[in-house]
Predict the 3D structure of the following.
Amino acid sequence: MLSGKTALVTGSTSGIGMAIANRLAREGCNIVLNGFGDEAAIEAERAGLAKEFGVKVGYSGADLTNPDAIVDMMGYVARDFGGADILVNNAGVQYVAPIEDFPVAKWDLIIALNLTAAFHTTRLALPGMKEKGWGRILNTGSAHAKVASPFKSAYVTAKHGLAGLTKVTALEGAKHGVRCNLICPGYVHTPLVDGQIADTAKARGMTREQVIEDVILEAQPTKEFVTVEQIAGFAAFLCSPDADQINGAELSIDGGWTAE
């Protein structure tokens, strides 16, 4: 479906980003991975994708809190891959604290990585997409792009800002074949969440099942995690012709969390 196109997926060395990269590679996309982690593991993932799906796969370790590093990464994608046809702004970080205790450095980090980085990648990818007359920009939001939770001031602010950036990008790209949408997952089952479940169970003297239902998934009516594969499949659909008229949308995949 997407054979020959290039997808840059930020934050793709684990979790949601890795699943999206795998799914787009399966659809025939050349892939540029981005993120931090063990170098050997990242190289194994890169080589594995290339071998399994017969696509070209690159990697950039750019620190997305550094605008100059983003410029260098986008230059690499342009030189070696002909530019990004699909841009998935997925990189992010979280921190939880009351507003009055929230470390300023953590605020700056979350805004830089979760929001400002998406502005820089978008501004640099958009001209090439417009010139080609086709492009897809997918921003990984959250249920917190629509609703708030206590103690997550920076994260909620960044995700609400990302919703605004999505809408503006959608309007500016609409006549040029470029579509931009925001995917808004609820709680996703990742190794990181598994660790949080174990820590919470120990701290509160609860069973794993109690933590999942009464703490982690309290807001999700289905009482089921969203899987990374479901998000990746949704992302692939949004890059397909069937989604050509979906533009500027905030698309929930949260088990009904934001329906309440």
